[in-house]
Design a protein that fits this description.
The chain is mainly β. It has no helices and 29 strands. It has strands at residues 3-5, 14-15, 22-24, 30-32, 38-43, 49-55, 58-63, 68-73, 76-82, 94-99, 104-111, 114-123, 130-131, 135-141, 152-154, 160-164, 182-186, 203-206, 210-216, 222-227, 233-238, 263-265, 272-278, 281-286, 292-296, 304-306, 314-319, 325-329, 345-350. The chain has a 5-stranded antiparallel β-sheet, with no helix packed on it. The radius of gyration is 19 Å and the shape is globular.
């Protein structure tokens, strides 16, 4: 049964995004001397949030450690449902969310037997949404307290894409018989599409360490962000059947056996998580780098920065049904330094 948790929603407080002088108040709002770029806090007080999606126009947020799906309402948030048997630990727990064209909620979480994707009907009216009974789409996916993947998204082909980390066993990413270190492509019901690159296999690409973000450009080009180890994080263009090199290569290796990333960054400057393509630009939420990085689809080897050091760790970024860009912070996950009001969703007003 759904239960109420009221958290403050801020609709009118400007939060400025680009680097420069700022004064941050106790509610997390900021006023900037340079006047360049602004945002508003949509909601504050979230606990280890991981992903945002929309049932119709109603936002839903996953919280990693308590297994709750929160509905953002006009005056706060409420618990729309709690996912059963979530086993959080380290980087695992309740992670990615996605909605299909029938408004069913897909949830990527860690259960007793590894990671899994489950599907739930979303029932009720906005302000009183709840989740129906779970259907398991895929389970037994590799899981560990590190490198656990967790992102899910529907591509323009209507297929479900699932990121799977190497679960701490690097060599498994080069074993096509093992789902670790791969991006999977499934039908919405969990079957293997007949046109997948490897006959009978859900593997769409492999040789990944910990892919964390998925997005498609208007022309169908698929991009994925990926956590590296100690040398390079990556932005990749994903091609069916391609091998992205981990653990043999990290970053741009120039080895013809593998597909190189289109851009790379040092992990302490990046740690890229969720990504979104908005108005022809890839927006990448960065954790350790504490920045919203922007990459033009037309020139993916270049980049610029927003939010640098202003709001801490950034976990996800998404476009709302009304065309706004929302950014999810991630400072309460045990690795950040929470400020008053963390964690929060920010609405980007100007870039």
């Amino acid at each position: 049964m759904a239960s109420m948790r009221v958290l403050p929603v801020l609709g009118v407080v400007p939060l400025l995004l680009l680097t420069g002088c700022s004064a941050v108040s106790s509610d997390g709002s900021a006023e900037r001397a340079d006047g360049r770029g602004s945002a508003q806090a949509v909601v504050t007080g979230l606990d280890a949030p991981w992903s945002v999606t929309f049932a119709g126009k109603t936002p839903l947020v996953s919280t990693r450690d308590d297994g709750e799906i929160l509905e953002i309402t006009g005056d706060g948030t409420r618990v729309a449902g709690t996912i059963d048997d979530v086993e959080p630990g380290g980087e695992t727990g309740l992670m990615g969310l996605a909605i299909d064209d029938r408004q069913r909620l897909y949830v990527h979480s860690t259960g007793p037997d590894g990671n899994r994707v489950q599907r739930y009907p979303v029932e009720g009216e906005p302000g009183a949404l709840s989740l129906g009974d779970a259907e398991t789409i895929v389970d037994g996916l590799p899981s560990a307290t590190i490198h656990s993947g967790g992102r899910i998204a529907f591509g323009p082909d209507g297929m479900l894409y699932v990121t799977v980390g190497d679960a701490g066993v690097s060599d498994d990413a080069q074993d096509r018989g093992n789902l670790a270190g791969s991006i999977l492509r499934l039908t919405p019901d969990g079957d293997v599409p007949g046109d997948n690159p490897f006959d009978g296999s859900p593997v769409y690409s492999y040789g990944h360490r910990n892919p964390q973000g998925l997005a498609w450009a208007d022309d169908g080009t698929m991009f994925a962000s990926e956590f590296g180890a100690d040398t390079w994080d990556e932005l990749n263009v994903i091609e069916p059947g391609h091998n992205y090199g981990w653990p043999v290569v990290e970053g741009i290796g120039g080895d013809e056996r593998f597909t190189d990333p289109v851009q790379q960054w040092r992990p302490d400057e990046a740690s890229p998580s969720g990504i979104e393509i908005h108005d022809g630009t890839i927006h990448i939420a960065n954790l350790r780098g504490e920045v919203l990085r922007t990459v033009p689809v037309a020139e993916p080897s270049s980049s610029a920065e927003l939010l640098a050091g202003e709001y801490g760790r950034l976990r996800d970024v998404t476009t709302t049904p009304d065309g706004e860009l929302w950014i999810l912070t991630n400072n309460t996950d045990g690795r950040g330094s929470p400020a008053d009001g963390d964690d929060r969703i920010l609405r980007l007003i100007e870039r």
